[in-house]
Amino acid sequence: TVVCIITCVVILPVSYGITFLIIGVLELLVMIYFWLVVFSFFQQLRENDQMNINSPAEMKRL
């Protein structure tokens, strides 16, 4: 019974902490990936607008 109590008191909180740490890191990585995708999308839109401004009338995109 002493081993069971020590296991419940020590190992379970540590495993919960490790689990929440892994979930938090994964959530952070997903958030960073999302903002990189959004940033690259708007960067591409800005580059397209810049190309339209600098190109002659025949080559302008609609």
In DSSP terms, counting alpha (H) and pi (I) runs of 4 or more, how many helices?
Answer: 1
Rounded average pLDDT? 83
Computed Rg: 26 Å
**Low-confidence segments:** none
Largest sheet: none
Keywords: Membrane, Transmembrane, Transmembrane helix
Transmembrane segments: 20-42
Structure description:
- The protein has 62 residues and is mainly alpha-helical.
- The protein has one domain.
- It is 85% helix and 0% strand.
- The chain has one helix and no strands.
- It has one helix at 2-54.
- The radius of gyration is 26 Å and the shape is rod-shaped.
- The model has no long low-confidence stretch (mean pLDDT 83).
Short description:
By secondary structure, the chain is mostly helical.
